[in-house]
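Methods — Computational structure assignment.
A single polypeptide chain was analysed. Its primary sequence is given first, followed by the predicted tertiary structure written as C-alpha cells.
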Amino acid sequence: MNKVNLYDAKINLSNLVDRAAAGEEVVIVKNGVPLARLGPLPKQKQSRHPAKALGISYIAEDFDAVDDQTVELFSGGNA
C-alpha cells in the first residue's frame, strides 16, 4: 500500500484513480496522518438490463398525448 500526501494526490488524482482501478490501494496522508484510502471497487458480475423489467413490450403511439379532460381539470374547469 503506497502513501501519497494530500497535495500530490490533488495534482495526480487521475493517475491515482487509474492505479486504484488496476487494483492498487493508495493511502492519502496529511502531515503524515492517514486521512483516506483509495482502492478498487469490486467488479460487476454482469451489466444490468432493466428494460422489460415490468414485462412492458408495447407503448401506444398516443402514450404522451395531451388529454383535454385532464388539461381542463388542471386549469380549474369542471369536466
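Note: Strands lie at 2-5, 26-30, 33-38.
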